[in-house]
Amino acid sequence: MKRFLVPLTLFLIFGISLNLGCKQEGLTENKLSSQNSKNALLQDLSNMEFKDIDNKTHSLKNYKGYPVVLIFFSTECPSCLLEAKYLGELYRKEKGNFKIIALNIDIPRSHANILRSFKKELNIDYPIVPVSKNVERAWAILNVYTKNDFIPQMFIFDKNGNLRYYVTGFTDKVAKKLEETIDKLKKE
Q1: What angle do CA 173, 178, 184 make, to 5 degrees?
Q2: CATH number, domain with residue 109
Q3: Is the peptide bond prior to 130 cis by the omega test (within 30 degrees of 0)?
């Protein structure tokens, strides 16, 4: 019995860690945009500024004219690592046709050097923003839509800054749908 208990425990722990945050496999279309209170929250989000690890400022309003992918991630999350690597490749392939802002929500807060190493290790070209009051505020605003605190979470805004899709978790299906969505939004 003990011979099976250790492998079973390891299998369960590994399986749970890989599936954290992977409750949804597809992008959810934002059908809630007509609600005034949610629109006001999104307007607040649009005006927020985020300083990345290189001290550059990013905001949704500064990226009008581009589809924007706003992600919340942790350096400790296996799904987040897969998502970051994939997004890095997609970002290079698309050569500036869309923007990404990656908001780190590690608690305790990741030091900028840890995030720089993470960025270098995964060959990421898009901006990474460490935890700050604005990151925490953005997390609270966008959780109005997802109603969960799983990670990774990805929010996709159209060229006008309107929230169009969101997803929790990262799978191959999410990656495929993301590419289709970015292509669609670039053409609008």
Answers
A1: 130
A2: 3.40.30.10
A3: no
